[in-house]
Every structure is written in C-alpha cells, then in structure tokens.
Design a protein that fits this description.
This protein is of the alpha/beta class. Helix content is 48%, strand content 15%. Strand 8, helix 8 and strand 9 form a beta-alpha-beta unit. Helix 5 packs parallel to helix 6 and helix 11 runs antiparallel to helix 12. The chain is globular. The mean pLDDT is 92.
C-alpha cells in the first residue's frame, strides 16, 4: 500500500472547497507521457494554479501503473524545483470498476472517479458507495457521475447525451457519500463535439437547478475541450485530415466555473495542440529524426494552451 501523502500529493477536498467559494475551477489535465506532464506542471507553476493530474484506464495501460506513480511523485518535486509548491492531485479518470479504483488507491492515487453512469440508477448508487467506503478509509476522495456524455475518448463512448436529472442529485450524493459529482449538461468527449452549423450550448439551466438542490457541493464537467479552430487548421495545413468540429465555447465554461463547477476536464485540446506542433516540424524539417526536436515544440505548444486555459477559462491563476 502506497499512501499518496508519502508522494507529496493532496486529495481534492480542500482545493474544491476553495474553488467553490472563490468562483473558479481547478484544471484537470490528462497525461500519458513525460512531455505532457512537464507541460502541465510548467503551466501551473508559472500561473500558480493548483492542478489535477488525470490518468485514464487507457493511460494506465499505456504508460504502466508503476511508472505513473513515480512520475506523479516526480511532478511534485519538479514543481518545487521550478519554484512553487502547488497542490497536485493524482486522479483516476473514468474508473469503470471497484477493482480498478482499489488498485489505483493502493498505488498512491489521491482521488478516484467511479463511473457507474451507464448502469441503472440503483446499481450506480451501490457501486459508487462501495468505492467511497474503501477510499475514505485512506482519505482518498471520490468522484461519481450521473448522466451520460456523448462522444468517444479512450474506453469511454456513448452515442448521445443523457442529461443529469436535477431531482436525482440530492439522493445520489446522500446515499453514496461522494466528494464531487460529474454531471451531463451538454459537454461531450473527444474532438468531434458539434458539427459546423450546430449551436454548441451547455445546459446552464440544469447546472443552476442542481446547484439549488445541493448548494456548495463540488460539481465536475467532463468533455470540456473547446477544439480551437486555429489548431485544427494547423493540423490540416501540415497534412492532417481532421473533420470539421466545434467544441464547447470558452465563455460558457468560464460562466460554469464561476458557479459550483470546481473541476473542468480538458484532454482533447491538449492532444490537438501537440499534434499540430509535431506535424509542423515533420513538414518543415522532413529530415528530423530526433524525438526531442519534435516533442519539445509539442511540449511548448501544450504549455501555452494550458496557461491560457488556467488564466482565461478556469480562473485558477494565483490560487495555489
């Protein structure tokens, strides 16, 4: 059993409480490799923002669970080396089983998500409660989910939205004991959220009704990438073939972050930024074969994107 506290990590309880009171959201950035992790820490240290390092089941399989633990521990030391001891959470994103959540807790995760949203309501409650009972023994925080997001990202996929029913949230929170709740209000997973001509609109009315029913309770938004059109154009300019897509408008996310939404997940935008930078190097310097020469620019592009998100979308700058 590895305690996250021995790795220098924190759980989400205190930083969420401060975010709800302060009207901002904590960035939850997914990572799979060293360059992504460096970008996240550099961006959050320079903006003095707390951060949640998110690991999906797919990332865990890709990078290896043991390496990820030491990378997270290294991230804490790296932040100190850069000059700011920011709060860092290591979080399992979309855990799909009790066993996976337990394994992550035993390997040093400070927060886990159990996603039972595809199950019947009572089964979701039972599974979430089981994870909460285990996690809380080790002071690990737990995120649950009500409602289903459309889209595809790693192992998570759904054809269409099932909006969260505000009338369910109070009962769910009470019965499960979760520390935060992911809701479905129109955000979606992946880079292909809305087609051109569609009006992207998240259901802030549902969010505000949920806030009334569980005032002050930490709310989470998944699938909140904005799919920057300049980055999509860059990818296609340098040989990519991305279909037209529109993401979640940043002004809508900023409005949500001013409410009880205290954690906003952003993954696809980062993938796009890195891909655009790498493709540019490959086209402009076709003889280049040193990974550092294309992963370095990709890291810089990702850092710039994340600094923008912290400052202009999430509002978490100087909240560390």
């Amino acid at each position: 059993m590895v305690s996250y506290k021995d790795l220098g990590l924190v759980n989400s309880r205190d930083i969420f409480a401060k975010a709800v009171d302060g009207g901002y959201a904590i960035p939850a950035f997914n990572f799979n490799n060293m360059e992504q992790l460096q970008s996240i820490i550099q961006a959050c240290v320079e903006t003095k923002s707390p951060v949640i390092l998110q690991v999906s089941k797919g990332a865990r399989n890709y990078a290896n669970q043991t390496l990820l633990r030491y990378m997270a521990q290294g991230a804490v030391e790296y932040a100190k080396e850069l000059g700011c001891n920011i709060p860092i959470v290591l979080h399992l994103d979309h855990g799909d089983s009790y066993e996976l959540c337990v394994s992550c807790i035993e390997l040093g995760f400070s927060s886990v998500m159990i996603d039972g949203s595809s199950l019947p309501y009572d089964e979701n409650v039972a599974l979430t409660r089981k994870v909460v009972e285990y996690a809380h023994k080790y002071d690990v925080t737990v995120e649950g989910e009500l409602g289903v997001l459309a889209g595809v990202e790693d192992e998570v996929s759904a054809e269409s939205h099932t909006y969260t029913r505000p009338e369910d949230v109070e009962d769910f929170v009470k019965k499960t004991g979760v520390d935060s709740l992911a809701i479905s209000i129109g955000t979606s997973h992946g880079a292909f959220k809305f087609k051109p001509g569609q009006k992207p609109q998240i259901r802030l009315d549902i969010l505000h009704e949920i806030e009334k029913r569980i005032p002050g309770f930490p709310i989470v938004l998944h699938g909140s990438s904005s799919v920057p059109q300049d980055i999509v154009a860059q990818i296609n300019q340098y040989g990519g073939a991305l279909k037209d897509s529109i993401g979640i408008p940043e002004e809508q996310l900023r409005e949500a972050a001013k409410s009880a939404v205290c954690k906003i997940n952003i993954d696809s935008d980062g993938r796009l930024a890195m891909t655009g930078a790498i493709r540019k190097v490959f086209v402009e310097k076709p003889a280049e074969f040193d990974p550092r020469k294309y992963l370095g620019p990709a890291r810089d592009a990702l850092k710039a994107l994340y600094m923008h998100k912290v400052r202009n979308v999430l509002g978490s700058e100087n909240k560390a």
